[in-house]
Amino acid sequence: MRDKVFNKKKFIESVTDHVKSMYRKTLKDASQQELYQAVSETVKDVIMDEWIATQEVMDKKDPKVVYYMSMEFLMGRALGNNLINLSAYKEVAQALREIGVDINAIEDQEPDPALGNGGLGRLAACFMDSLATLGYPAYGCGIRYRYGMFKQQISDGFQIEVPDNWLKDGYPFELRRPEYCYEVKFGGHIEESTDENGNLKFTQKDYQSVLAVPYDMPVLGYDNDVVNALIIWDAQPKNGFSLESFDVGDYDKAVEQENLARNLVEVLYPNDNHVKGKELRLKQQYFFVSASIQRAMARFKKHHSDLHELPEKVVFQMNDTHPTVAVAELMRILVDEEGLSWEEAWDITTKTVAYTNHTIMAEALEKWPIEIFQRLLPRVYQIVDEINRRFVNEVRDRYPGNEDKVRKMAILYDGQVKMANLAIVAGYSVNGVAKLHTEILKNQELHDFYEMFPEKFNNKTNGITQRRFLAHANPLLADWATKHVGSGWITDLSKMSGLEKLADNADVQREFMEIKRANKVRLAKYIKEHNGIDVNPDSIFDVQVKRLHEYKRQLMNILHVMYLYNKIKENPSMDFYPRTFIFGAKAAAGYKNAKTTIKLINSVADVINNDASINGKIKVVFIEDYKVSNAELIFAAADVSEQISTASKEASGTGNMKFMLNGALTIGTMDGANVEMYDEVGSDNMFIFGMSSDEVIAHEKNHDYYPADIYNNDPDIKKVVNQMVDGTYSPNDHELFRVLYNSLLNSQPGTDADRYFILADFRSYADAQQKINAYYQDKKAWAKSAILNMAHVGKFSSDRTIQEYVDDIWHLQKITVNTLGV
Predict the structure, then answer these.
(1) How much is the average pLDDT of 632-640?
(2) Distance CA 633, CA 659 (A)
């Protein structure tokens, strides 16, 4: 903490007091979980002073605030990260050592808050860290999921989804704020009336409602006393348990309100393969958006009476399409509750909401059946209908007679509410998250909107926080970087460029490789404990960890492992450096192909890991329940980073940046942010393969790709594809992997075979992997490339990304906070 001295004696006394007051125990009698809670409460005491001071500054200065609205915030464990940002991690670790407590064991007691799943949620978490570190006032707005998406268990190689009960022991880094609860209404019908001035009034009748109760989690800036808040909303029944219904035997009615509230916040992304699931997802989105906007409006009105000033003080950033209902909800509040005219409200709304697009894939741009949307959100639907009516008139005026434009751009069309269209029509900014992604949006998926609103479109390449993913995740490498370039990289990642001049230094290379090996030993220990597999820390650690989706091509990776295994079996003396292939991924509960891919990976692992004849040359590991805490171990240990998505499909990627930060070399396509990484680090320090995005898009347009031709003309490829259905990896059920076989070769109704071009890119991928095999054997060359990756990672800090959002979209002002400290 800036200009503060850590008081070890006071810290130990505070931990001792918390153990006593919370558990009626002494330090020596306390369990690890109880020690974790006591240490966390001690740290929270320090945070509270800074949090209060930050709030006082915000109340006094009344700065413009961004409300970052996201269905996901994949925050990771808080204790260690908070200590890093308080500049007190090493001091606390030493103090705990003196009382016989291992800080790593204490940190392992903390659950990962189950508030997100993939890159979208982790990006939101990195952004919150950077906003606080740069001193910009911000609130994250999301849902307090009680069980997250799910906790993944692997049973007989299959993914099993079980509840992730992360709140069972309580969570010390959250603060319940019932004084800021708001009512959120669903269903019913709308009655129209006129007021004394003849203006139409709209009243929702016969609705169900819940109370949204916020829990605030502190988000600390690095060494600057700034503490922003992540607001996660819990749902509570407005009326609670009905004793009257219970007494007459209507037990379902008695708990109806409680069930409505509980269901809203149970699970992230309920399976929406059925109507009830779709209804629940839409309710969740409206629930947190409505509550967040109500809180933002109340906060604004504390200082301002003129609602026309709202865009000068508030911006709502919609993280993907999930929060897009914010457009209509803000309009509802401004028109129905604040009495503004439609034109006034629209002018304010369109200067206040902004949209980040995170996907190129059309099926991921949310669309809701009108019947569901209208039934659940009747007034909001009326507003969307009016926005659409006015916009369609605009399109027809601009493009007379061109009904194709209306079909593509209308918000309501073909029985659907198109949320991305709503976000673009209303948002004053529409940004992609990598240069290539933004260009594809402008030229392909959103071309009609770009043609009409070119001034709205901009790019903000994603980034990651080096404080979480180097300072905390990889302390050995963090200290090494500080030794060679100073500590400035912690808040200015471009300082890593100082490593470039050291990349040829033999001593520096040796230090780097020793640190990498130590981290591989650490991960190998984790794998042994959790998987029961012995892996060789001197093998190449080749890693693909991310959400499991077909376009990310985990299937191509495991097919290549099968291919290598075949080659070694055919030629045991071939030149092959030992390789450990590490996978980690969750598949959505209803996503059959993704879940079958997990089973295939584990089945291949069972065969290869138990084949003594290959002398351990290949090991395959699937890490169960991939999350931030085990990701930190994995990034630090990786030699090779697999970023192998089909070109044109990955919006950005951020795992690619975390691996780069930790000195791994990328094997990847020219997709997403890989393109910009390539620009930064050069062709000598990455392994690029596969078709370009233009080639993929051309094949998709022309329907001229025939994977069966590759299958029939390449015996190696034919063999591995056939091994999915000939019992090699499923002796008791030859049909187990048929769905994956069919995805590569058999055209399904309305789709093309091998739609993600796995067979088309396979040979190029195998060639790039062979280059890795050769290159890694020159340890000096490998170390140099790894160090150069670190030296050129500066662009990919979320600090840079956030500063661009501030400069180009949000126009925030920094705040300065000073506290006396501990």
Answers:
(1) 98
(2) 11
Q: Is residue 658 flagged as an active site residue?
A: yes
The DSSP-derived string for 394-426 is: HHHHHSTT-HHHHHHH-SEETTEEEHHHHHHHH
**Which pair of structure tokens corresponds to residue 806?**
């501030």
Q: Name the active-site residue from 552, 553, 755, 784.
A: 552
* 477-498 pLDDT per residue, tens: 999 999 999 999 999 999 999 9
Catalytic residue, chosen from 658, 755, 784, 792, is 658
Pick the catalytic residue: 18, 283, 468, 546? 546
Strand positions, DSSP E, 341-464: 353-356, 367-369, 412-413, 416-418, 430-432, 457-459
**Active-site residue, selected from the candidate residues 654, 669, 728, 801:** 654
- Whether residue 346 contacts residue 389, with contact meaning beta carbons closer than 8 Å, is answered with no
Q: Are 18 and 40 in contact (CB under 8 A)?
A: no
The neighbour count for residue 507, using CB atoms within 10 Å, is 8
Q: Estimate the crossing angle of helix 715-722 against helix 758-776, to 10 degrees.
A: 100
CA distance 536 to 422: 52
SS3 68: strand
Handedness of CA 424, 428, 432, 435 (dihedral sign): positive
Going by C-alpha positions, the residue among 616, 612, 624, 597 that lies closest to residue 531 is: 624
Catalytic-residue membership of 60: no
pLDDT at 822 over 60: no
Mean of pLDDT over the chain:
94
Look at residue 412 in the predicted model and tell me its pLDDT.
98
358 is annotated as an active-site residue: yes
274 is catalytic: no
**Is 405 considered catalytic here?**
no
Is residue 283 annotated as a catalytic residue, yes or no?
A: no
Angstrom distance (rounded) from CA 506 to CA 787: 12
Q: pLDDT digits over 414-431, tens only?
A: 999 999 999 999 999 999
- For 461-474, letters b (16+ CB in 10 Å) and e give bbbbbbbbbbbbbb
Any residues with CB less than 8 A from the CB of 493 and at least 6 apart, and which?
466, 793, 794, 796, 797, 799, 800
